[in-house]
Request: fold
Amino acid sequence: MTRWIPRWCLEIVIVLFVAALWLVPLVPEINGFPFFRGAKYSDLLISHWPNAHFLRQSLLKWGQIPLWNPITLGGAPFAADPLSGLWYPPNWLTYVMPISLAFNVLFWAHLAWAGWGMWLLSRKEGVGWQGALIAAVAFSGTPKFIAHIGLGHLGLVSAVSWTPWILYLAHRFVDEIYSGKRSWIRWGMMAGAALGILTIADPRWTIPAGLLALAYSLYRATLRHRKVEPTDKTSLRGRLLMAPILYGTSAIAIAACLLLPLFEYVSLSTRTGISITDQTQLQIPISNLLGVILPIISQPEWVAYLGVTICYLAIVAWISKAPGTGFWSVVVVAAWVFAIGDQTPLFSIFNAIVPGADLLRVPARMLFLASFGIAMLCGKGVDWFLKNELESPAVKKVRLSTIGIVLAVLLFICGLWFLTGSIQNIFIGSGVVALLMTFWVWLNFKYRIPQTYRALAWVMLIVADLLWVNAQLLEVRPKERVLNERIILADKLASAPQEGRIFSPSYSLPYQTAVQAGLEMVDGINPLQLRAFRTFMADATGFPSVGYSVTLPPYPNGDPSQPWDVEIDALELGQLNVAYILSEYPIASNDLILMEKGQGEYLYQNEMVRPRAWIQDSQDLSSTTWRAIDSLMWSPNGITIQAKGPGTLVLSEIAYPGWKVTVDGANAEWQTLDNLLRAVVLSTGDHEVVFNFQPWTVYLGCGITLVFLLALVGVWMRR
Reply:
């Protein structure tokens, strides 16, 4: 390192380079889409790309930041949906560069951000420079990250990358509290803001990260409290009482732009009725925890591999009783326990005592915390080797652990070979790394090797191990191929004489294709679905209205192409302006006309389709007597209709709090028909009816966030 280059600049360059290594498969197709190897689907294409494209089109075509999203599920609040990415500033990169390239840059940047945060936190923990670097490499390259990149979990990867930062700032916050300086307020606001930003990236990670930050803060406070003189404890008590209030308020304030509309959305969604069975559907089987030291890759959510060398160094830290080992060991064990879900009674207890925990799914994601804790222990283990503590009492145990872990890895590999008759390449790599590591440990005990070379060798072993596994988790598919899937069919539907929405019981029209053609779907995939809409669709298409599913309709065994008992009510779908039904298999219905039978798809037209808005004499939605309106102009946040009264104007749009209506410029009250659609009663004559989406939750939330940001800037400027 030279005196002309600040250390932080060098650190950034290193973590960016290391992060690029984990995404090597993307290099030939930098504009391509990363997929978990062999996977059919990615959330990048199901959710993130359509949302980013819609946001860009809204800004370019209407000059609006969209608050309402018509793409799927018949329409839903865009500003309240965490998957929209609207409130997370790094996501705005998708507006200034090609969307697929922006996604890959975001993945790269967040892996680097995770690594840099881990580096700084490790240094705060007393780990040496080289050990902190190795901890950063271990965390940023954990296969759990890469598996979720392959699943397209942009929000989750972004949120998890903030985890070391909220702990780093919590550490600094506690230090400032015990220093007695007024700067503790500034650092408390900053620490809370980091948790708030994490929440905006993906609220599902807030509870795991927040609980870890709380536990870490208490741990650091306990260590500091032992050193406080009794005479100082009176003033300290007040700061300690104020600290959680300041921290929590700051986190809520920075995330208020998302949290307020999200709370409203969740309260009206199917998420509130989720059962323990639904929550634990993707918990990792206990037997799969063997994948911690052996790269057993089956379900991508169950990827638990940490790396042979990383696990070994974590064991060394535990044997050598490095400072903080106890706390981080508890973090790792707790993460594994909660990752297996209701296979222990602790999961139900956790749900009962932690507010909001009963809304979380996929316990296996707790494996991120295990990776985090092991990476920290890994850095501490490297420190033991680099500090030449080869004469300490722990040496014998370290040598035995070396033999133990390499024998365990080799025996597991041989056992799998015996059971299956073959060995996968991914296992061979782990076995080779285990042998190389054993040889390297022997060299460390045999010879006095310079510290720099020792650190470099540990880095190379870890990088080789993780690079070998990560490269086999990802595959990249060309942008042109995935964005043009069934594009001819989509263009045909977009230019068809009959305008209307589309329903597919079998995900026959990919959403990234539909949004490019300007098509709107009433099926969809989203963890948040409006309860009233799902009930209506269950009745209109024949799937059970009970239970929870992220897909609408729910797919048997998770396979969209698998036929299920579709029972189409053409009248009800017609009320939703559904003009076409597209399926992988034939559908029987007297009111559907088969328009086209292609390779793998059946296209039907709905004879009972209604326009986007109409006038009827009664408020009975099933009435077959209706007449057309004069005209309709649509934009994401407003709809203008010209219509003749008298009668009830029915708008085939989902009823949701925040929609306001005026009739001829005067405020009016809209009604909900069949617990789903918006309607307003018109008197005799010509009328201009304007629906505007003006959710107070969004405006108030943005106001709170803005005020807090100004306060934070003001506090830092007065330092």
About this structure: The first helix runs from residue 7 to 22.
